[in-house]
Amino acid sequence: MKYKRILLKLSGEALMGDQKFGIDSERLETYALEIQKVVENGIQIAIVIGGGNIYRGIQAEKSGIDRVQGDHMGMLATVINGMALQSALESQGIYTRLMSGIKMDQICETFIRRRAVRHLEKGRVVIFGAGTGNPYFTTDSAASLRAIEIEADVVLKGTRVDGVYSADPEKNPDATRFTTISFKDVYQKGLNVMDMTAFTLCKENDLPIVVFDMNKPDNLRRLVMGEKVGTLISM
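Above: the chain sequence. Below: its structure as tokens.
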């Protein structure tokens, strides 16, 4: 086993499957089964999920909604996705806790760092919703922040591509994939991994990031058990 405690970052769009918006129940079940494999290997797992399948705060400005208001709407979307993922995991018999950066006691626990760590130590999957609880911060930033707070070994960014490329592989067939790359090289090459705030948080706290394809069966389990999957970004 390579990692003892991980922070898995999923995009809200990943939950759409082949739909144009919302939550695809089959994709949700697939992710729950992949996460179950990790839990069964005794690895502690926390999850941050985006809300782009329901609402993107940054789109709010185009529709005339105040940016702060829009970001709060986006935070609520991440809680909806967290509730859906919690339900899917519990249907597989996995104990979970949904913790929110915004107080909403009837729905989930408010994030308290020590309590989150205790849940992880007891073998529960912890889902962090509502981002950082503040506007102007993305869920990538929330993932980096929560990972540092709970002293995770790594941030695993699950995407639909199998790592970091020299260019967008969906647009440029000549793009080459990196197996490993340093934080410094990502900066210098201008590669798009996470937003700058999230990326800098990881760099300054020496927290490695692995970008991998979450949609390929068994990738998550193979990665945490030490196989070379995706692209490792480290010092």
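Residues 60 and 66 are 7 Å apart (CA to CA).
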